[in-house]
């Protein structure tokens, strides 16, 4: 008994447990066609953009998600450009003294971009683990979208994942 009354148990507090209730969103801003890729994307990243929008994962995206998805693909391209700079090596000659080696600044850029990319991928549900955390079961989403024009985060996903 606490000074202000009975203490709640861990189950009541939800300690260490996620809310697995079903969330249903009406698709007001549903994206039904492949949006135009950002203008500065190269051919490789335009193909990746089309691949994303042709995938079942994109079917849960709504118009409000588009800026984050665009940013993700722009970051992919920036990372690839920074990786090209890494081909010069992890160490580069200094600008003051050509004899002095220093860490390639591209290492820091790539590391920072990877962190931002990973966060966006997790928020958007691009990776298998991100989809599991978000409670997205792709096959069920495709069926639900076709039948009801809704986006559902499945309550049963936890049970399906633990029984598989």
Task: Note down, in words, how this protein is organized.
Helix 3 runs antiparallel to helix 4 and helix 4 (105-124) crosses helix 5. It is flat and about 70 Å long. It has 7 helices and 4 strands. It has helices spanning 10-13, 43-54, 66-86, 105-124, 128-134, 138-148, 157-163, and strands at residues 23-26, 91-93, 101-103, 150-153. By secondary structure, it is mainly alpha-helical. The chain starts with 9 loop residues before the first helix and ends with a helix. It has a two-stranded antiparallel sheet. It has a two-stranded antiparallel ribbon with strand order 2-3. Residues 149-155 have low confidence and may be disordered.
Quickly describe the structure.
This protein has 164 residues and is mainly α.
Helices and strands, with pairings:
Blueprint: H1 10-13, E1 23-26, H2 43-54, H3 66-86, E2 91-93, E3 101-103, H4 105-124, H5 128-134, H6 138-148, E4 150-153, H7 157-163
Antiparallel strand pairs: 1-4, 2-3
Helix pairs in contact: 3-4, 4-5
Give unreliable regions as ranges.
149-155
Q: Could you give the count of β-strands?
A: 4
| Average pLDDT | 78
SSE run: HEHHEEHHHEH
| Strand coverage percent | 5-15%
What's the oligomerization state? single chain
């Amino acid at each position: 008994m606490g000074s202000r009354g009975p203490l709640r148990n861990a189950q009541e507090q939800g300690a260490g447990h996620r809310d697995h209730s079903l969330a249903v969103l009406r698709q007001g801003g549903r994206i039904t066609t492949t949006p135009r890729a950002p203008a500065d994307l190269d051919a490789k990243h335009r193909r990746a953009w089309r691949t994303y929008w042709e995938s079942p994962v994109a079917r849960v995206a709504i118009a409000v998600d588009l800026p984050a998805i665009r940013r993700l693909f722009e970051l992919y391209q920036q990372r690839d450009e920074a990786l090209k700079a890494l081909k010069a090596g992890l160490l580069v000659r200094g600008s003051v003294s050509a004899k002095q080696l220093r860490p390639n600044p591209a290492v820091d850029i790539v590391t920072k971009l990877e962190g931002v990319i990973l966060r966006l991928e997790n928020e958007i549900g691009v990776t298998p683990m991100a989809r599991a955390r978000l409670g997205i079961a792709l096959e069920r989403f495709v069926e639900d979208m076709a039948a009801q024009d809704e986006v559902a985060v499945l309550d049963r996903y936890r049970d399906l994942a633990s029984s598989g």
